[in-house]
Fold:
Amino acid sequence: MRTDELLGNFTSVRISEVISESKRCETLYFDLKQSSTINPGQFLMVWVPGIDEVPMSISKWKPPLVGITVLNIGEATEALSSKVPNDWIGVRGPFGTSFDLDCKNALVVGGGVGMAPLRPLIYRLLEEGANVTLLIAAKTKNDLIFHREFSELSGNALRLITTTDDGSAGYKGLASEGVTELVDITEFDKLYTCGPELMMAELHKLAMKADIGFQASLERFMKCGCGICGTCAMDPTGILVCLDGPVFTGKQLEKISDFGKYYRDQVGLKKKF
Ligand SMILES: Cc1cc2nc3c(=O)[nH]c(=O)nc-3n(C[C@H](O)[C@H](O)[C@H](O)COP(=O)(O)OP(=O)(O)OC[C@H]3O[C@@H](n4cnc5c(N)ncnc54)[C@H](O)[C@@H]3O)c2cc1C
Ligand code: FES
Structure:
């Protein structure tokens, strides 16, 4: 493979629109002339000029339009969130694995900005004729992402459930508690999730106990995004989140001892969640 292909063909793109999703979260839209298909769950490495390059899930793909949904938590995401139409950023990719769409009755659980990669997944599942129960979870009502969009879409094929930690909208409690209390997990073929890793680890236990399929999109610090630097490796196998993930199956996660327990910080030190 040519080096530029391996590194994801760096392209400069001009932002066409910025939509506020919550107080600390924006979706940035831009056109990306992309010859290959982008599948739900894949991500881009996004260069913020003068600051850093960070991984961002693709939250919209309607060729050539691409969207990324950014939660402002630090230097690079703050700079990205403050971009306005006509500003330029750089992107490489798409990278990583995608969600498996083979499902008739799906339970999708998104926590906070974890809704970003799930948004295109939900549209694809509905297009493929699946029934989708979507649980959108957040700390508070003001942190719910894409809630209005999916409440407007909810109907026969899409059922929407809301949970917030403080009870300011929907069921009061954690997403995993919402799944236990509000649905019968055994009715679903597969549980798809993205969000805080402790939430995903609880959901993984529930899905494995119910013996249904499980797919989760993980986050780790990334530098290259394409399997060169090893920053995103997970113990004990050294599996790479950028290349072998970010979407992993329940069976794969059973073999990853770091899942739901440890991550590595910017300098590679192992930390507890
Ligand atoms: C595959 C993938 C997809 C992602 N998709 C999205 C997305 O769609 N939207 C979005 O907003 N974010 C997404 N992220 C996370 C995003 O890349 C980070 O929030 C971003 O890199 C933080 O950069 P920063 O300079 O703003 O913050 P920093 O200043 O680097 O960090 C701020 C704080 O967040 C912590 N932190 C930052 N990144 C991580 C991490 N990966 N794991 C654990 N702690 C971390 C730091 O330790 C620090 O405490 C994704 C990450 C991955 C790996
Ligand atoms: S980020 Fe470099 S190997 Fe994954």
